[in-house]
Fold these 2 entries.
Entry 1:
Amino acid sequence: MKTNQTIFLLKTLLLVGLYAPFSAHSKNKNELSTHSKAKKSLKVFIDPGHGGKDPGAYVDGIKESKVTLKTSLLLKEELLSIGFDVKLSRETDSESVPLRSRVEKANKWKADLVLSIHANSSTHKQLRGAEFFIDLPFKPNKEDYDEILSTEHSQRMSLRWSAVEEELLSIKSKSKKASVATLNKIDQFEKSHLLAQSLSSFWEVHKLPSGKRKDLIFTSPLFMLKHSPIPTVLIELGYLSHPIEQQMLLSEDEQRKFAKKISKGLLSFLDKYSLK
């Protein structure tokens, strides 16, 4: 009886051992299949900031427009390799593409997401780190801001997100009175915010000159953000004015790392939210 039980137990363990890898493989295959379908149907519009007559930030003879284009082309390569459908607003640095045309191109192509790629600059040489910008569906009050950072491009306003959430809840509670356009704008903001959170989670957090932790997500009424009806995030990859980050922004190896981080952020976003 004892011998039979032992043989039965061994057979059971053997079957479990043989089945387990197939079961895990089957599960992984199903997950990849589901993910592949999502990726294959997702259209990502990449906007390399500036270009042509507009060099963007110009630091130590370096044009921001060239940095954004090189990184965007590597990002396109990365996203195509994992199954996304990708289109760029420009593919050469001689192209001058008006901001309105960039928005129109993304709309005409029926993009699901828009990523506008930039490199930052500041007179404060110690400022560093990536920043992710989205547009708000309402005009915030002054007391909603924690801190304002001045850069060459514009003022970066650090919001108290609890205040934003309160305002959004207030607007939604009055949804019968709110216009369809307002509700659509809120929906777009929420998707953009989630996308910015997913993207920024792969970047290092730095400190401000004051010693305070620097935020990664900001809001700004920049044209690409304000006028795009598609979930849009503007990414400042780093500061050309910071000596260490300048070298990183010029390095192809680092540009590939930026592209890899963004692709991981997009996959993380898809894990949390389905656009289809």
Entry 2:
Amino acid sequence: MEYKNRLTSTVKAFWDGDGRSIDDAEGRKKAITRATRDLMARTLKRIVPETESFNNAVICALLPKIDEWFSLPQDSITQDTFDEWHHEACKEALSVLRAFYINQDGTPVAYGKAQKIVNMTMKGLYCLNEAKKKNIHFQYCHMALDSFILEWFCRQVMPWYNKGKKATERIKKTAIVSWSVIPEGDGDAPYGYDMYVKHMRDYFDAEHPYDGLYPLQAEFFIWSEIQLAMAAESLYGQDIGKEDAVAEAQTRWNIQWTDGQKKDVNKQFERCKQEFKLRPLEEKVAFLRTRVEQLCKYVNVTETTYV
């Protein structure tokens, strides 16, 4: 029950909703505005004057759709009704995106950016006061696909899905593109948006991770945890050198080298990095905390607060 017990505080740490209620139109607008900040406009070329507000245009497009969704009676909420509504909302967002921007190479903006706006809006709405009374309206929400959620997908969902599958049926990491250029897909199209949603749902239904939280709730934890894991993995071995890292790892994990690794420190170090990648998050966080504290001492940095 660890995750369920921490859910409320974790949601508030992400965003406290500025004290607004989900029943407040201004609160819903703020959730949309926060979502448009994740656009990564630096990868896009604006095609309308700066005097025209992209944020206001998105609010005008999405707010009626959001009001429509949350006005539905609870007994009409199903996975299919949500997916149909979500598809329409993404089309609205994509229409606004394409009216304001093109990609730097001149190609149209992809569905990946639209899903990010819609899904981050729903995540923001969940942070508003009184959102719990609308819990069933969030039950079928999708996780917002970005680089971190896709990395989590590759580490957790993809191996689960691929287990026992023929090579031709497996998801291939090399075929997974950046979230911002993910196409819409139709459920059967490989590597389209719908593929990720389907496999994530199947994974949650089968494995019940995160104390049985539904995907939107679990995302509040996943997004932070995968960043911590990747930060630790990036730092691993960089501060003490390959030889010391190998010696430490062999003592800690009792690694048995293959014949090809025994006399090659570079191969041993690569093996250690792979071993570290498999360690539980708690161990990675402990490593990260210890190493950062050590590095701060080297440069005489005292603890402070980053705002």
